[in-house]
Design brief:
75% of the residues lie in helices and 0% in strands. By secondary structure, the chain is an all-alpha fold.
Length: 88
C-alpha cells in the first residue's frame, strides 16, 4: 500500500485554506499536489473538523472490530451446527 504524504489533519488544514479564498491552483503549487488531488480531498473531507475526523476514525475502528467478532462467532456457530447435525 502506498505511503500517504499528508495526514488527515494536514489535509483539513489545506481545505480550510481553500475555504478562506485561496485558489485551488495556488494551493496545489504551494503543497506540491495536483488540482485533482485537492478536489478529491474536498469530496472526501468536506466540512470535517479534526475532532470530527478523530471520532470518525474511532467509529471505523470499532465497526471493524465488531465485524471481526461477528465473523468469528458465525464461523463458530457453523462449526457447532455441522457437529450437531451428524447422527450420533
Amino acid at each position: 500500500m502506498a505511503r500517504k504524504r499528508y495526514t488527515e489533519e494536514q489535509i483539513i488544514a489545506v481545505l480550510k485554506e481553500a475555504q478562506a479564498g485561496v485558489s485551488i491552483p495556488e494551493l496545489s503549487r504551494k503543497h506540491g499536489v495536483s488540482d485533482v488531488t485537492i478536489y478529491k480531498w474536498k469530496a472526501k473531507y468536506a466540512g470535517l473538523e479534526v475532532s470530527d475526523l478523530r471520532k470518525l476514525k474511532a467509529l471505523e475502528d470499532e465497526n471493524r472490530r465488531l465485524k471481526h467478532l461477528v465473523a468469528d462467532l458465525t464461523l463458530d456457530n457453523q462449526a457447532l451446527k455441522a457437529i450437531s447435525s451428524k447422527n450420533w
